[in-house]
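Open question from group meeting: does this chain pack into something compact, or does most of it stay loose? Before anyone orders reagents, we agreed to write out a predicted structure and look at it together. Recording both the input and the output here so the notebook holds the full record.
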Amino acid sequence: MSQKIERDHQRFRKIVRGKVKSNLSRYINRGELIGKKGKDLISIPLPQIVLPQFRYGQRGTGGVGQGDGEIGTPLGPGQGEPGSGAGSEPGGHILEVELTLEELADILGEELELPRIEPRGKKNIVTTRDRYTGIRQSGPESLRHFKRTFKRALKRQIASQAYDPKRPLVVPIRQDKQYRSWKEVQQPQSVAVIIYMMDVSGSMTDEQKEIVRIEAFWIDTWIKAHYQGIETVYIIHDAAAQEVDEHTFYHTRESGGTKISTAYELAAKIIKNRYPPDQWNIYAFHFSDGDNWGDDIPHCLEILNEHLLPHVNLFGYGQVESPYGSGEFYEHLVDIKEDRENLILSRIPDRDAILNSIKEFLATGR
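Structure tokens returned:
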């Protein structure tokens, strides 16, 4: 019986996987999954999956076997008869299922035909440490649990009427002694970091920021599937740059000019001080509408060529088109792209382009 249940469960999971895969572009474009993200699971609404169910008719129509009828005659009132009142046919139902982030990453990889990422440096290092989480009956005296041992000895002496309240001396014997026990716990060491940079100047609208948020979610999902530990850095910039938390990154409302070099300088400084390239796999993504102070462009290219591109696995520049941005920065990066395999450029005119942009960024397998 258990084997049959397991087969049915596996079959259902395949159906769910196929439904998610066929609707992946809709989930990505609308950003439906981001708000549903839990600790380890994501709840996904799946229409068009019909589950077996009992359907009840109306009362007072007679019981089974009563009245005239032919073989095959449906029991209960017919459907769609004139004047029969509200119909009892079920409407469309949406079933919510839960998938792990790993399953979601696999579906993304299959749909976009993404190669597996090949980490460099110290990859997937797992450290072990001892955690004292239990109690044993034996062990070294240095790990003896005094409170538990005293309680056991006191209970034993009271039960055997050996305890004298006038002379409250409690002497543990061998059977009373309790010792702390430990077990080795594997802790993944964070060996990968994703650095997100976003232009928050006046030309970047809320819609452009939402596009960045959606794309970053899926990039996170894919990269995290290849590492046992990962860190994320968020940088926002207009004419100046600053490191912020995730909420600030996606909800900041700014205005003013744009100086992209400030973000690149800060990213290079963070890498130098916190993430040595020989030990970390570094992924950097910059999203902007391509508007930049003209005299700043040569400095941007200098930082990219000398301080960022030599040290990162991948640098992705996504140009989120805005009605207010010039879009010229993209063309300057095209000029240096041929000499840099780890520099990936992508144009993102609207939400419908998110899926293709993710594929452009991640198709290298770096």
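Observations to bring back to the group:
The chain has three domains: 1-52+92-113, 128-186, 192-362.
The beta strands are 41-47, 94-100, 126-136, 179-188, 192-199, 231-237, 241-244, 281-288, 314-320, 343-348.
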